[in-house]
Design a protein that fits this description.
By secondary structure, the chain is α/β, with parallel strands linked by helices. It is built from twelve helices and 20 strands. Strands 6-9-12-13-14-15 form a six-stranded parallel β-sheet. It has a five-stranded parallel β-sheet with strand order 2-1-3-4-5, with helices on both faces. This is Ribosomal protein uS12 methylthiotransferase RimO.
């Protein structure tokens, strides 16, 4: 099964879903597009189907129907989703559509009227109903046992852990709240139970995700949840502290820089805790006027103060962020403020997007949209500066000893990640000597001996 290109290819990176159907067992295919939050939705759907007696087909030809979990965040993502639906129709013919773009059924059916059903994001029951209609189940209670960890679309040694759904922010460029609703946090004990099962099954890294991780539990009024011999608040600090005791790496994504985030940093500075000194924070911009036009809940000067405070507590913290250049009304002076801010912030990992309209986003109506050539020029200048910062930071790691997690091993090298690298979006550390006995999921001590602009090379420490 082939699906979304570049960085997030859960269907191609799939290390655990295999074709193991018994005779007569109905088979379903899955194409999963978009962000890790959508990937978790795909895993939950497949886990439910597997429990009901369906087998998972790794290709179009072997599937009796195909589910396409779509992305609808940007117009380019919508186009990709429509292409994926079209490919599935051409290759298989029986297609069920779900996910973020599924909230726009008329839009989908306008291009692909023959799809069997269309459902919105995290509408698991509707997806299952559509599958039941298209391909009736044939369960065998003696064979169709649900694996303890469910069906996974990531390698066995790491897993995404979704702690909440939806978002309460009203950023003008974003339609996620319209598609996925307001913040809805999972109970702390349910998250911890899932995390514990994953670690018991061999997961070495838990990647905590949501649309707004910092806001976790706000909708639940930070209620107390029973967990083993104690209670745990539905609060990001309490939840993270507990996750850090499970014996795996814990990496936090999509953390808004609220003041209470500072409470997380001592956990990252504690060597006995599994919480990695890593924060993925969507700053988006630094100029106060641009942030105001975005309706973002932050200001560039305040975030610099927070960054300074975080580094004072945990000097080794890795900071990752994404930014938008060419937002409507962005002037050259405002863009220069962003470049100056980046110089001062010295972020470790940086991604950047050129602004584009999204159907239904309020930013579409803003005046003074930036021409495409200027957006491209600003993107080039931004990435050049970010690359220079990254290269200098990685060069400073040469000669250091560090622990790495092995992701893949082939005939040329072992591809690993340091605590500063999230899968798919950050860099790698390569071991190209004395690696033949390594396997994915191994934790290895290395000495860094070479650095590039985004990646490191090292030798095993003996």
């Amino acid at each position: 099964m082939t699906a979304n290109p570049p960085n997030l290819r859960p269907d191609l990176a799939n290390a655990t879903v295999r074709e193991d159907a018994r005779a007569g067992q109905p088979k379903i295919g899955m194409v999963s597009l978009g962000c890790p939050k959508a990937l978790v939705d795909s895993e939950r759907i497949l886990t439910r189907l597997r429990a009901e007696g369906y087998a998972i087909s790794p290709d179009y030809a072997g599937a009796e129907a195909v589910i396409v979990n779509t992305c609808g965040f940007l117009d380019s993502a919508k186009a990709e989703s429509l292409d994926a639906i079209g490919e599935a129709l051409n290759e298989n013919g029986r297609v069920i559509v779900t996910g973020c773009l599924g909230a726009e059924e008329d839009y989908i059916r306008g291009t692909h009227p023959s799809v069997l059903a269309v459902t919105g994001p995290h509408q698991y029951e509707q997806v299952l109903d559509a599958v039941h209609t298209a391909v009736p189940p044939a369960p065998d209670p003696f064979i169709d046992l649900l694996p303890a960890t469910g069906v996974s679309l990531t390698p066995r040694h790491y897993s995404y852990l979704k702690i909440s759904e939806g978002c309460n922010h009203k950023c003008k460029f974003c339609i996620i709240p319209d598609m996925r609703g307001k913040l809805a946090s999972r109970p702390a004990h349910a998250i911890l139970r899932e995390a514990e099962k994953l670690v018991d099954a061999g997961v070495r890294e838990l990647l905590v995700i949501s649309q707004d991780t910092s806001a976790y539990g706000l909708d639940r009024r930070y209620d107390e949840n029973p967990w083993k011999d104690r209670s745990v608040r539905s609060h990001i600090t309490d939840l993270t502290r507990e996750l850090g005791q499970l014996g795996a790496w814990v990496r936090l994504h999509y953390v808004y820089p609220y003041p209470h985030v500072r409470e997380l940093i001592p956990l990252m500075a504690d060597a006995e805790n599994g919480v990695l000194p890593y924060l993925d924070i969507p700053f988006q911009h630094a100029h106060p006027d641009v942030l105001k036009r975005m309706a973002r809940p932050a200001a560039g000067s305040k975030t610099l103060e927070e960054i300074e405070a975080w580094r004072a507590i945990c000097p080794d913290i890795t900071l990752r962020s994404t930014f938008i250049v060419g937002y409507p009304g962005e002037t050259e002076a405002e863009f220069q403020t962003l470049l100056d801010w980046l110089d001062e912030a010295q972020l470790d990992r940086v991604g950047c997007f050129q602004y584009e309209n999204v159907d239904g986003a309020r930013s579409n109506a803003l005046p003074d949209h930036v021409p495409a050539d200027i957006k491209q020029d600003r993107w080039n200048r931004f990435m050049e500066k970010a690359q220079t910062i990254s290269a200098a930071k990685l060069a400073a790691k040469v000669g250091h000893r560090m622990q790495v997690l092995v992701d893949d091993v082939d005939g040329e090298a072992a591809t690993c990640r340091t605590i500063s690298d999230a899968p798919e979006i950050d860099g790698n550390l390569f071991i190209d000597e004395d690696f033949e006995d390594l396997k994915p999921g191994d934790l290895v001590e290395v000495i860094v001996d070479e650095a590039g602009e985004y990646d490191l090379w090292g030798k095993r420490a003996r």
